[in-house]
Amino acid sequence: MTTVTTAPMQAGAPAADLQPRQLIVTVYGLYARQEHNWLSVAALVRLMADLGVDGQAVRSSVYRLKKRGILHSVLVSGAAGYALSGDAVAMLREGDVRIFRDHRASVANGWVLAVFSVPERDRDKRHELRTRLTRLGFGTVAPGVWVAPRHVAAEAETLLARHGLAGYVDLFRGEHLGFADLGSKIRDWWDLDELAAQYGTFGDRFEPMARRLARHTVTDREAFVAYVPILTAWRQLPYRDPGLPLELLPHPWPGQTAAGLFAELNAQLAEPARQHATSIIHG
Question: Which of 66, 89, 185, 261 has its CA 20 to 30 A from that of 21?
Fold first, then answer.
């Protein structure tokens, strides 16, 4: 058995304020992809029980995820289970880059501009487009003009094309030439106070766990109970902060501290958590 160091934990306690469907997406992102994107109903229910989620909540959440096109029912060797859709696999693959790599831009890297105009007859596409750009971490310069660090360009091009939105958007790469101070404009384009508060919440929640890592030992199962909520809480943040240049952000920027904390916990908990999940999946 693999062991790591942390305080003893009650099953499900770290997941108490997270939605079951969020935890299910994390479980599928972490463990189903190594199992041909499929988990049996029995394995999913057992893994979610470790996180304090009962069978009824699992079924209800899976129903919602199926309606959203993320999961679908599949029989494998007579066993009932759920598989990831093609779109969900693509989404998770793209998410790996955001979640597990630190893409911190500099001003010298430049920017990508998304300029769009959507006819009134397609106003539902306008809402979807804004939602997608927000998810990519773009900030709003003006109506129909959004901006992000340049490294987001390829991801934006791929995502907008996959969702049938490319015809409404022009993407440009460039640099800021003037005239206002760029640091002050960043505050207009992104809600830095809210973003800093979200990073602070992550740190407040999981820093005590990191401090306990040097003092206690935990089983693979306990690592799983800790790790899935950590990743579920973290995976939202790299989308809200697209890696804005540190020279334009308040100092010290809590995103740096939070990223370091996540990297530390990920390094210590990911493998034993995987060992537990694998034992359940193949048990």
Answer: 261
pLDDT in tens, 104-132: 899 999 999 999 999 988 989 999 999 99
Q: What is the DSSP string of 250-277?
A: -SS-HHHHHHHHHHHHHHHHHHHHHHHH
The reply to whether CATH 3.40.50.720 applies to domain 1-103+190-283 is no
Report which residue type is found at 141.
V
Say if residue 179 is preceded by a cis peptide, omega within 30 of 0.
yes
Query: Please, what is the average pLDDT of the chain?
Result: 90
Percent share of the chain, pLDDT over 70: 94
Q: For residue 102, give the 3-state DSSP assignment.
A: coil
Q: What interhelical angle do 20-27 and 55-67 show, nearest 10?
A: 80
Residues of the chain with CATH 1.10.10.10: 1-103+190-283
